[in-house]
Design goal:
- Helices cover 29% and strands 29% of the residues.
- The strands form two sheets. It has a nine-stranded mixed beta sheet with strand order 5-4-6-7-3-8-9-10-11, with helices on both faces. Strands 1-2 form a two-stranded antiparallel sheet.
- A hairpin with a 3-residue loop joins strand 10 and strand 11.
- 38% of the residues are buried.
């Protein structure tokens, strides 16, 4: 067993006691207009990564990674849009090597498929993560109309990250909470993050 695997995002790894237990599935919920993609991009620098894109083309994801000023890796980017996306995704997941990352960005189209097919996908991912000591991260867009199977995603996930972005006047605030953490300790308080060129702690003070 690989124990905990670092995310590559120093602030998160410190707060989580060294990283995420190998074999875990993470659900990251965030507003579509947030900078949550920085978390995904920095994760690719930690180890080999299979990046499944369900909306954007593989080329556009690759371009976004090249333009990102923070440290990123060289993930294997595959588009799984189109017909039978869950079957296509499962085929890709089964190619994931030992101690790797799987990113699904976003998971929303899969959550609109039939409950039975989606449950099979989730169980396949969890089994493969455990067998390969890997980590999966599902990017869940927390928009105006969450997909019908979002509750299933969060129930099946081992770890839930909730990123809340608020705007007050000219101030933008990002707070990350970790309400669920199987195999670890959920955080008692939210982490105030700065998402600009990279993921870091926001040390500015809240003004009531």
């Amino acid at each position: 067993m690989a124990g905990k695997l670092p995310t590559g995002i120093d602030v998160l790894d410190r707060m989580l006691g060294g990283g995420i237990p190998a074999g875990s599935v993470i659900a990251l919920t965030a507003a579509p207009a947030s900078q949550s993609e920085l978390i995904l991009y920095e994760l690719t620098a930690a180890r080999r990564t299979l990046y499944l894109t369900t909306q954007r083309s593989a080329e556009s994801v690759g371009d976004a990674l090249q333009r990102t000023p923070t440290r990123v890796g060289k993930p294997n980017i595959q588009s799984v849009a189109g017909d039978m996306p869950l079957d296509h995704a499962i085929q890709q997941v089964r190619t994931l090597p030992e101690e790797s990352n799987l990113i699904v960005d976003p998971i929303d189209p899969f959550e609109a498929e039939s409950a039975g097919q989606y449950r099979h996908f989730l169980n396949t991912v969890q089994t493969h993560m455990i067998n390969t000591d890997s980590i999966a991260l599902f990017h869940c867009l927390d928009g105006r109309q969450p997909p019908p199977l979002r509750d299933l995603t969060e129930y099946m996930a081992d770890v839930v990250f909730q990123l809340e972005t608020t705007v007050s006047g000219d101030t933008l605030t990002n707070r990350l909470t970790v309400p669920k953490f199987r195999g670890g300790r959920a955080l008692d308080e939210p982490i105030k993050l700065k998402l600009s060129e990279r993921v870091s702690i926001d040390t500015s003070r809240d003004i009531a």
